[in-house]
Design a protein that fits this description.
Blueprint: H1 2-33, E1 42-50, E2 57-72, E3 75-87, E4 91-92, E5 97-114, E6 125-144, E7 154-171, E8 176-184, E9 190-197
Antiparallel strand pairs: 1-2, 1-9, 2-3, 3-5, 4-5, 5-6, 6-7, 7-8, 8-9
Length: 198
């Protein structure tokens, strides 16, 4: 009889310990998943680029639309498209006044490594490193403002676009936040924008 009592006591003790361990693991996982970025999350991130490499004076800074999908708790993949415009100085002569206007089109892929979840930062903060690879298309057009306009010249060139940035995202609520990325890229050295989660 004592043996049965001891077995029942051990059984209940084991079940209680297992339940406590399970609860502790659930809480740890919940706390871990509440930090920054999580698998399955989709972000749409419109932004403006600063520190671009456009020719002449900037008329429209790079306007960029980024999208990312949480492929893993520490890895997201996605893409971007962007547009910008600049203009050369105006040349004034005896027989001709003219300037060049440049349009820039950007597109490519991006991937982010989210490492901030293992640092003692607030749950709303997502720290990450981002690598991007894509193309830049630049078109240029000659604008003449004379009484006897000459031939309007247009041309285009293509270039590789590669970048490496450090980023931080801050969630203002469960579906909206802001982000900042700083690094190097021909499109922009800095991106500042909104982060919309779906």
């Amino acid at each position: 009889m004592k043996t049965y009592g001891l077995l029942i006591l051990i059984l209940f003790g084991g079940l209680s310990a297992q339940a406590q361990l399970s609860d502790a693991l659930d809480e740890t996982q919940k706390a871990q998943r509440s930090k920054g970025h999580n698998k399955g999350e989709i972000y749409l991130m419109p932004s403006v680029g600063l520190g671009d490499e456009m020719v002449g004076s900037t008329l429209v800074p790079p306007l960029i639309m980024n999208a990312e999908f949480g492929f893993h708790d520490m890895l997201s993949v996605g893409g971007f498209v962007g547009y910008g415009m600049s203009q050369s100085q105006k040349y004034v002569g005896v027989n001709a006044n003219y300037f060049w206007r440049y349009s820039y089109y950007y597109f490519g892929a991006r991937t982010s490594f989210h490492w901030g979840r293992y640092l003692p930062v607030p749950d709303e903060v997502d720290l990450y490193g981002r690598f991007s690879l894509g193309w830049r298309i630049r078109t240029e057009k000659l604008h003449e403002t004379t009484s006897f306009p000459g031939i309007v010249e247009t041309s285009a060139d293509f270039g590789l676009l590669a970048g490496l940035h450090a980023g931080a995202k801050y969630k203002l609520n469960s579906n909206f936040g802001v982000f900042l990325e700083v690094g190097y890229e021909r499109m922009s050295a800095v991106q500042l924008g909104a982060a919309i989660q779906f």
